[in-house]
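> tool_call: predict_assembly(chains=two)
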Amino acid sequence: MRDVRDALMVARNTDGKLISRPLSPHLQVYRWPISMALSILHRATGVGLAVGALLLTWWLAAAAISDSAFETVQWFLATPVGMVLLFGWSLALFFHFFAGIRHLAWDAGYGFEKPWYERSAWAVVIATVVATVLLWIVGLAVW
Amino acid sequence: MSKAPHVDIMRSPLGRARGLGSARAGAVHWWMQRLTSLALIPLTLWFLCAMLRMIGATRQDVISWMAGPLPIVLMIALVIATFHHLQAGLQVVIEDYVHHDWLRIGSVLLVKGLSLLLALVCIVAVLQIGL
């Protein structure tokens, strides 16, 4: 027995023989409620943003080192690849930001009722899209 | 009259025998993740506003922006909260999906070590730019 929880998976069948109970169905058999998609996305964007922190480190370190190092970062961020990375980063950041606030509300004990559960999920999606679009409109205007 | 049977300890005998427990610090990880996320709400909004001003900036622009104490302090606070939050989150993800003991411990330590080093790089860079 690898794990103490395995003990809960052992049972007897009708012949009295010891058997391992099957696991309950996993993710693939359920339809996708929005809350499930958001939960998975929250984790995925968290991992993505962790990788994005490398970009912040590069930017700061380059600004500390030399003019040419900083010019390289700024040049890279303005290339199509850099722009796509920045767009993905801002989208992930806003999503994680709003979904994180939803999580904090749950931690404080609010928002578990079904209508609010669904409403807050859609609010996160809408807020993410609106904030990202606004940021890029302002960003491209000042560029 | 006999008293109803009761349990004095929450910990199971098996848990005691295996020697695994919270080590009295079980909630700290969870709590710090929430505290850093709270701190990151205003810090992230400030950071985005600051970065909008840094689009197409030269190094001189960055240096003059970071000349005052406020951007230096907020930037260092952002870096500390970000990297602490990041390593706490990645640790949970690794612990969920990596089941091989040594691989899991190794990757968690690697993530924590790298996060600390990168945070230090950011902090030193901010100080070098601003001071």
